[in-house]
UniProtKB/TrEMBL annotation:
Record CDD domains: FBPase
UniProt keyword terms in alphabetical order: Carbohydrate metabolism, Hydrolase
Domain Fructose-1-6-bisphosphatase class 1 C-terminal: 271-394
GO cellular component, one term: cytosol
Enzyme class: hydrolase
Protein name: fructose-bisphosphatase
HAMAP family: FBPase_class1
Length: 407
């Protein structure tokens, strides 16, 4: 297979490099009539198109060097990079990525404005606060897309979804259990705000195979986060990014729309030990617990353990807020009993820990909690280890009242 390689050497005497390159069949064409010549870089070139683009970057900073190669697809990465996922999990991921591509296309289509409307299943417009958390048609369609893909994989025994009241038993002999939120943030789809899919994967509990289907389906879905085999999310935004971990680091792959492949763009993500951003709905400030108000007031003034003043960045899309936090550090949070332990908190906490971060309910490590209900809700704090530790030190950070609005 023909490939094209670019080698770039960069030297910065006193600069800590942070390089993010992602090529999509690039073609650099410069025309004197349309470009200010004073701003043209000293070298311009045209690349031949090819089926696979091999992009290598090296950088030197104060004598140190680093090299990254963006040439692996998700399937190639799983097959050859020492992840030891096994054939069964590789097949399952091929179906998960297929479903995510279909959802990405659906979210980006001109028809999502209709599917994203806040309608109930009878088709009536919902105007009250009680409708805020109910499934939208887009949620239902996304759920069906994923369920269909999991059925066809032949590798999933049971699927538990935020959109279903009970788990769906699929195959008596399949090795895996999948828990998921098929489309987080769908109520904001009209405004083209980023949305996402969150998933976690467990091994089927073979020791309870003798139990009735309903009982074993629920028990398989209520496993502790410490038993996760893999987890991930797919961010549907300006780029479609699949971020995942198999217990040996967190990696992100960006969808190349020219080839339809997820390409490794963020190898072994490492969340900064401390950030300078907090992500929370500040409008609820007066409903927060006293400890959380003191924590936010302190870091905003630069009087916390980090001497710089923190900035607020809040998208109100869990996947998007967490993705930014994973890359830049800080803490993303919802202090009330709103997010689901099984479908959201456990998978994202697994990813955070594998990137060197933490997931907490404000007092306790998320992955150490034993779910007792499928739709169990709790506060969630995700982010840099030093930021989460400082937040926990304020003790009273969980919001226990919801005056004026409903979950």
């Amino acid at each position: 297979m023909q490939s094209t390689t670019i080698n770039i050497n960069l030297k910065f005497p006193n600069f800590q490099s942070r390089l993010h390159f992602y090529p999509q069949n690039p073609k650099f064409l410069l025309k004197k009539s349309t470009i200010n010549q004073s701003r043209i870089p000293p070298m311009a070139f045209t690349l031949p198109s090819s089926n696979k683009f091999n992009f290598k970057v090296s950088a030197e900073t104060d004598g140190s060097s680093a090299s990254v190669s963006f040439d692996d697809t998700l399937m190639e990465f799983l097959g050859k990079n020492g992840t030891n996922v096994g054939d069964d999990l590789l097949v399952l991921y091929s179906h998960i990525q297929y479903a995510s591509k279909k959802i990405a296309a659906l979210v980006a289509s001109p028809y999502n404005s209709v599917l994203g409307k806040n309608f109930n299943l009878a088709g009536d417009s919902a105007s009250s606060e009680t409708q805020r958390d109910k499934p939208k048609p887009l949620d239902i369609v996304s759920n069906e897309i994923i369920l269909s893909s999991l059925r066809h994989s032949g590798k999933v025994a049971v699927m538990a979804s935020e959109e279903d009241d009970a788990p769906v038993w699929i195959d008596d002999n399949a090795p895996f259990v999948v828990v998921l939120d098929p489309l987080d943030g769908s109520r904001n789809i009209d405004a083209s705000i980023p949305t996402g899919t969150i998933f976690g994967i467990y091994r089927r509990l073979e020791e309870i195979d003798h139990l009735p289907v309903k009982e074993k389906a629920e028990l398989n879905s209520l496993q502790s986060g410490t038993k996760l085999v893999a987890a991930g999310y797919v961010l549907y935004s300006s780029a479609t990014i699949l971020c995942t971990s198999f217990g040996s680091g967190t990696f992100a792959f960006t969808l190349d729309h020219t080839t339809g492949e997820f390409i490794l763009t963020h190898p072994k993500i490492s969340i900064p030990p401390r950030g300078q951003i907090y992500s929370v709905n500040d409008a609820r400030y007066f409903d927060w617990a006293e400890g959380l108000r003191r924590y936010i007031d302190t870091i905003r003034q630069g009087k916390g353990k980090h001497p710089k003043k923190y900035s607020a960045r809040y998208i109100c899309s869990l996947v998007a807020d967490f993705h930014r936090t994973l890359l830049y550090g800080g803490v993303a949070m919802n202090p009330r009993d709103h997010l689901r332990l099984v479908y959201e908190a456990n998978p994202l906490s697994f990813l955070a820990e594998q990137a060197g971060g933490r997931g907490s309910d404000g007092h306790t490590r998320i992955l150490s909690l034993q779910p007792n209900m499928l739709h169990q809700r709790l506060p969630l704090f995700l982010g840099s280890p030093e930021d989460v530790e400082e937040l926990e030190s304020y003790k009273d950070v969980q919001q226990r009242v919801n005056p004026g609005y409903e979950v």
